[in-house]
């Protein structure tokens, strides 16, 4: 789609293998020979073989000084006689994203967007999936933020139109595809994904997300790498909550302004802000936040060692030989960090029981509970989707309305095929 006007351009269909693509083209060519080829209205449809390079060039036409090789971008230097050229400045411009969002909010402003309202949503879905997120040294934090804000705006616009009435081409399935593109994006941090799910009002997705672990995730360009180990996440959250913030890079602000929300990461809520985001490469931002993470983990571990040993506090202290069960409340934990095995991390209404005779298994997230006001409650882990440790994730609505995400007005309270996360070299993760 031409983003400025909303006009539909060439359509690309991706196949798993080249042989399947050639077979499909041959079959359509045989139909053309007997005058039974596919049509769109009164127009014939011509089909030909293409490539990933042609697809990416059509998706990002404003990317200057870029050559696509085997689906990967290669930056070209400016020629000596092109002193006037700025060279490569990004895969997309802010104006393109502004126009895409405008077509969604006000489709009547464009004759093309008004006739086919779903096309602008399909365009942003393709953009999110095919954006070269792995090339972290070729786009900035600002570019990631603009794509996120555009997607969030379009989710809100689509939900508003669905609630207003029925429109041909717009349905809940399209909304689910928009949300899935955002949830599978490797450059969006967990709090961004929480906000996208909240804006979409998809209760089935929200019921699988924890209302404390995702919206209060402390970093902007770092994220978890699946599968999420609940024990490891709780342990590192405790260290981050106890850790001290040292020197941080310019533009990386600790925006924690809600003292009533200290769980599970304490007073840490970093976000890149200001003009520096337009110049800060995503790879550089990752390295700066890695240094902050290392400092928090190191100082937090030193603080933990100097404290009085608390048996069964987080499953890291040795247990006395005579102990059989240990009862502890989340309220008594240092830094307000939840216990390993509590059913609702963190919950001030549950207590956990860990038996020294039967060690907790990481493959089974359901632990024995006593004193819980909600017995047999399903465990919800801080993941972007279904609990990877639960073969039958719950699809029910949550027991209560989700808590409002932190700093919802800001960005922080904020692809191709399955398995897109694997092999990417984008945001880092907590060590497991």
Question: What's the layout of helices and strands?
Answer:
Elements: H1 18-33, E1 39-40, E2 43-44, H2 52-59, E3 66-69, E4 72-75, H3 94-105, H4 111-115, H5 118-130, H6 141-164, H7 172-183, H8 190-200, H9 203-206, H10 230-242, E5 252-254, E6 270-272, H11 276-279, H12 282-306, E7 327-329, E8 351-353, E9 369-370
Antiparallel strand pairs: 1-2, 3-4, 5-6, 7-8, 8-9
Helix pairs in contact: 3-5, 3-6, 5-7, 6-7, 6-8, 7-8, 10-12
- Head-to-tail CA distance between termini: 42 Å
**Strand coverage percent:** 5-15%
Helix percentage range: 25-40%
Mean pLDDT: 75
Report the total helices: 12
- From the spread of the alpha carbons, the general shape counts as globular
Strands in their spatial order, largest beta sheet: 7-8-9
How many E strands? 9
Point out poorly predicted stretches.
Answer: 311-432
Order of helices and strands: HEEHEEHHHHHHHHEEHHEEE
Radius of gyration, taken over Cα atoms and rounded to an integer in Å: 25 Å
Report the sheet with the most strands, covering strand number, pairing sense and barrel closure.
3 strands, antiparallel
Structural class: mainly alpha
Folded structure, characterized:
α3 packs parallel to α6 (141-164), α6 (141-164) runs antiparallel to α7 (172-183) and α10 packs across α12 (282-306). The protein has helices at 18-33, 52-59, 94-105, 111-115, 118-130, 141-164, 172-183, 190-200, 203-206, 230-242, 276-279, 282-306, and strands at residues 39-40, 43-44, 66-69, 72-75, 252-254, 270-272, 327-329, 351-353, 369-370. The protein is built from twelve helices and nine strands. It is mostly helical.
